[in-house]
Each structure stands twice: as structure tokens, then as C-alpha cells.
Amino acid sequence: MSDIVSVFGDQAGTVWQILHNRGPLIESELLSLTHLTEPQLHAAIGWLARENKIRKENNTYLLGESNLVQIIGNDAGKIWRTLEIWGEVDVQSLSRLSRIVEHDVFTAVGWLAREGKVDGIVQNIDEKKILFWLK
User: What is the C-alpha to C-alpha distance for residues 88 and 119, in angstroms, rounded to an integer?
Assistant: First the structure.
């Protein structure tokens, strides 16, 4: 079990470093080079978007001023409101309750983790056994 803020922050640093060294990459290349799972990658993208450090053009991610703020910020607001109402919630429930697909839940939670507004416990990210709650 791990604290999500430190885990997501480390993963965001990994993604940033790969993009810094390699330049623009598509998601499958990022997954291969970072050795992250899809949920981990999406949380890292949310974290970096909140820091205004990553953008997406077509299907390619690159470093630079983010063009993802409106989309991810909107989803982060929905996740925050859901957690405010329901308290401690797992990924599948967050997806269902907020009506956001799971990979976008991870992106939004990465954003909220960077803001210091959400915390959680990663029990097994591959099985998406993660509990989130507001700080």
C-alpha cells in the first residue's frame, strides 16, 4: 500500500523526464518507455496538466503550456464533488458516480493530488484497487 500523492508525483516526474529527453510521444510509447500502467500514466498526465507542463496535440503528448486544463479541471471538479458527498470511494465507484470513464478519473485524481485536495491508498493499481478521499 502506498500514499497516492508521493506515488503520483514520482510517476509525473518519470513522464516529464521521458518527454524532456525524447520529445513528443504517443501514449503507447510513453507506456513502454515509462513502464507505467495506463492508470498510472493518466494520473501522471493529470498531475503535469495541473502544473501546466504537458499538452496533447492529436494523439501526441509533449511538454509545454497545457491545453488540457479545461477538460481535466472540469473532471476534477466532478470528482471533488463526488468525494465531498460520498467520502472514501474506489475508482469504479468514482467512475460510476461522477459519470467519467476510468482513465479520466485517474487523470482528474492526478490533478487533485497535485493540488493537495485528495489523498488515497493504492492497494493494487493494476487491479484498480485504490481508495480516494478529500484531504
Answer: 10
Contacts of 96 (CB under 8 A, 6+ apart): none
pLDDT along the chain (135 residues), means of 10: 79 98 98 95 97 97 97 96 93 94 94 92 68 81
The DSSP call for residue 117 is: -
CA–CA gap between residue 24 and residue 9 (Å, rounded): 20
Domains detected in the chain:
2-134 (1.10.10.10)
- Cell triple for residue 115? 493540488
Residue 106 · residue 125 · CB < 8 Å: no
